[in-house]
Design a protein that fits this description.
Number of domains: 2
Low-confidence stretches: none
Largest sheet: 7 strands, mixed
Shape: globular
CATH architecture of the largest domain: 3-Layer(aba) Sandwich
Number of strands: 13
Strand order of the largest sheet: 2-8-7-6-5-3-4
Structural class: alpha/beta
Mean pLDDT: 95
CATH superfamily of the largest domain: Type I PLP-dependent aspartate aminotransferase-like (Major domain)
Strand content: 15-25%
CATH class of the largest domain: Alpha Beta
Distance between the termini: 57 Å
CATH topology of the largest domain: Aspartate Aminotransferase, domain 2
Order of helices and strands: HHEHHEHEHEHEHEHEHEHHHEEHEEEH
């Protein structure tokens, strides 16, 4: 008689069974500075208005028409150029999966600098496509000779460039990116998840090079719980990727909440300005702390190297502050913590707690 274990072994992929599930730290009662969320909620009056609006949503209907409204609203918000289109995902993760499926040609491989967003490699592996990771320099800049050599050798169908990068939070040299784009034989995806906090974006790059796509999310905009990602690029490319989008992949409640947020974009812009201000405050404080080496940031997080990341992480946790220990993600990240930028009060508490924890 077959046991359940026998059935699992026989029916589920070995690589899936050997994977570890994505872990989320319990955060109740903590100052939560570990997942790059916008720390602000809407003001009470807007929350009340949103609640009343969601109460009128027709939950008995599929969300096709409303998601089309959202697609058009995001195109206006992003000032999408002529000749380009936009498609929606249930968060950026779904967009990544759609792109990996679309680019899974015989002999394909995908490429990204490392350390970088872990989902690029995971999505490639789940699609059965080889992934080529090219290490950054010790200062987390693009290694141009190594990237160009890897492109020439592997001829990747997809190159992922997070801009700013996660977890390093920096923007790379625009001239280096241009040369990588020119050398790329396939598509280049600029992942701009942290665009609300950055000084530059890739819109002009996309207009110069039609094989460049831009991926963004509303998570860092302030809607992490709503799960809206979107892909922009030349209409012939986005139209093909859109064929892989599951029907009704964005719920009617999520679409309505996102439309409401775009109608109140000035409030989210104010929040982003506060986060940028607190980022500079935190960076200045870290620069004065003996033993702390912060790296430049254009996101809503700061990467900092400390003498003992595990000890500092544990000490902050004892003080009810959650950050992310990224030391194990890549050798270049040895003894590095990633600190999400919070409210002024949270930033003050983090600064006060860090010095004794170091």
């Amino acid at each position: 008689m077959n046991t359940l274990s026998d059935r699992l072994t026989r029916t589920l992929r070995d690589d899936v069974q050997s994977m570890h599930a994505y872990a989320v730290q319990p955060s109740a009662g903590f100052i939560k500075l570990d997942t790059m969320e916008n720390p602000y909620r809407l003001p009470p009056a807007l929350r009340q208005a949103l609640g009343a609006r969601l109460a009128e949503v027709a939950l008995n209907r599929y969300p096709a028409e409303r998601t089309e409204d959202l697609r058009r609203a995001l195109a206006r918000h992003a000032a999408l150029p002529a000749g380009c289109s936009l498609t929606l995902g249930n968060g950026s993760d779904e967009i990544i999966t759609m792109l990996c499926m679309a680019a899974d040609k015989p002999g394909a491989c995908f490429m990204a600098p490392l350390p970088g967003f872990v989902m690029y490699e995971m999505a490639a592996k789940l699609q059965g496509v080889p992934f080529v990771g090219v290490p950054l320099t010790p200062q987390f800049e693009l290694d141009e000779p190594a990237m160009l050599a890897a492109i020439e050798r592997h001829r990747p169908t997809l190159i992922w460039l997070a801009y700013p990068n996660n977890p390093t939070a920096n923007l790379w040299d625009a001239a280096v990116i241009e040369r990588i784009v020119l050398a790329a034989p396939g598509l280049v995806v600029m992942d701009e998840a942290y665009q609300p906090f950055a000084a530059r974006d890739s819109m002009a790059l996309m207009q110069r090079h039609p094989h460049v796509l831009i991926m963004r999310t509303m998570s860092k905009f302030g809607l992490a719980g709503v799960r809206i990602g979107y892909l922009m690029g030349a209409s012939p490319i986005v139209g093909q990727v859109d064929k892989l989008r599951p029907p009704f992949n964005v719920s009617v409640l999520n679409a309505e909440a996102a439309l409401f947020a775009l109608e109140h974009a000035d409030e989210y812009a104010r929040q982003a300005a506060s986060i940028r201000e607190q980022r500079e405050r935190l960076a200045a404080a870290l620069a004065k702390m003996p033993g702390a080496t912060p790296f430049p940031s254009q996101a809503n997080m700061i990467l900092v190297r400390v003498p003992d990341a595990a000890r500092t992480f544990a000490a902050l946790k004892e003080r009810r502050i959650l950050v992310k220990n990224v030391s194990a993600l890549h050798p270049l990240l040895a003894n590095c913590l990633r600190l999400t930028v919070g409210t002024p009060e949270e930033t003050g508490q983090l600064i006060e707690a860090l010095a004794p924890c170091l």
